[in-house]
Amino acid sequence: MLNDPMVLAPVADAIRVEPEKRIRDRSATEKAILKAAKSLLAEEGFQNFGINAVARRAGCDKQLIYRYYGGLNGLVEAIGADLGNWVKDRIPEDTGGMFLLTYGDLMERLSLLFLEALRDDPLVRRIVAWEVSENTEQVRRLSEARSKALANWLDRMRGSLTPPKGVDVVAVNAILIAAIQHLVLSASAGGQCAGLALKTSKDWEKAATALKRIVRGVYG
Amino acid sequence: MLNDPMVLAPVADAIRVEPEKRIRDRSATEKAILKAAKSLLAEEGFQNFGINAVARRAGCDKQLIYRYYGGLNGLVEAIGADLGNWVKDRIPEDTGGMFLLTYGDLMERLSLLFLEALRDDPLVRRIVAWEVSENTEQVRRLSEARSKALANWLDRMRGSLTPPKGVDVVAVNAILIAAIQHLVLSASAGGQCAGLALKTSKDWEKAATALKRIVRGVYG
DNA sequence: CAATCAAGTCACCAAACGGTGACGCGCCCT
DNA sequence: AGGGCGCGTCACCGTTTGGTGACTTGATTG
Q: What is the number of other CB atoms lying within 10 angstroms of the CB of residue B10?
């Protein structure tokens, strides 16, 4: 008596009072899908990132994702395309009125800028977490795009400043970037990192001070 | 002759050529499950870490996981129990014949030890990646256990050495640990980190040198 | 008006997932 | 001998997943 189809039929009619007709606008739908994908990835993480979930959030049929983006892969690629502009969108190019006289000045400033930019971009945070958790082709593309953009940024900001002789700038900077990324990820996930609380702004001040000290220690 | 009224009996007999009878040994099965879980997590990562996969690898029925460990949560907890001994199992307590005169000596040595230990422990690597990717209760327990063990280790190794005044040791060390962890994770996932290749042992020598320089820069 | 083609929807598929109840079997104990 | 009791297995449930074919609907053509 529960699952009686005769009873359900009128109910189904009663439900679709207003079908909320979807407009027939491909480019708008494409944008909606991309936006849904980005917000989903940013809020839920890569764990529950799938065709069904994206379609659900975009409010459209998943078939459209296959049609317009060729599946999840294409969608991820589309996300990665924006990633190249990340640094230039989120990080100010000017030096904030400061005069950067030495390479140490520069790296101190860039470190803090990078830290802050990463702190308030949940999408890129998730992507970084994704990069260190999986090794699929998708992720590798994302990683490459981000890595390249980052390197360009570093190089562009360097300007005419010359790093100190005798130190492996690439390696040292990689370690600094690694530290910042892991610090932010760790904080975002559990509110702390290796016993250092990272919740209040006071916590972050301590972290920033320590980071500055490290940068100054190696670059003078 | 037996109480088998089924007509399919001969078919079943034909299929199960050798039943490969599982021995009735609870503790052995428990160990097999735990081992399977650890190896699965280490090799495949937390993505495909589920009841079915563990049971499949352990070669037993998933029901036994529920019975013996109370589900995946209990199993993860059992994994976490071993984690407390990780540092003491994987990292030598002695100083390798070195005389550590200053806090800088100590931290340089500990950094490299931690780096190497993490580099050849895929399980803990996966757990660290898990920690920065999810925020469930499971992961939080793992994270806490590891974090506590790490802090204890640092404190124990410090001995009577006194860190330099005026620097926030906790914060600086957290950043150093973060850097090492992310470096290893990144290398393990994609073979590089922020443009720094991390595949050959020569690559790692460069990374180690840079790390030493950073530690020395901040701790003298 | 009629034909066409893209936009959007629906129904269905096989597979895998976590989870549970029930059953068979063998060992031990009285 | 017989009655538990613990170990292992199996079948099944509902749900979700990625993926595909077939359909309706609407607008713009000739």
A: 9
Q: Beta carbon of B25 within 7 Å of strand D?
A: yes
Q: Is B91 left (phi over 0), alpha (psi -120 to 50) or beta?
A: beta
Instruction: Note whether A195 contacts B147, CB cutoff 8 Å.
Output: yes
Q: Which of B30, B59, B82 is the endpoint of a domain?
A: B82
Chosen domain end from A82, A104, A126: A82
Alpha-carbon span A193 to A185, nearest angstrom: 9
User: What pLDDT tens digit does each residue of chain B (220 aa) get?
Assistant: 333 333 333 333 333 344 455 789 999 999 999 999 999 999 999 999 999 999 999 999 999 999 999 999 999 999 999 888 888 888 887 766 678 789 999 999 999 999 999 999 999 999 999 999 999 999 999 999 999 999 999 999 999 999 999 999 999 999 999 999 999 999 999 999 999 999 999 999 999 999 999 999 999 8
Range of the domain at B35: 9-82
Does the CB of A22 fall within 7 Å of any strand C atom?
A: yes
Chain A residues 57-116 within 7 Å (CB) of strand C: 60-61, 63-64, 67
Are residue A107 and residue A65 in the same domain, yes or no? no
At A144, the amino acid letter reads E
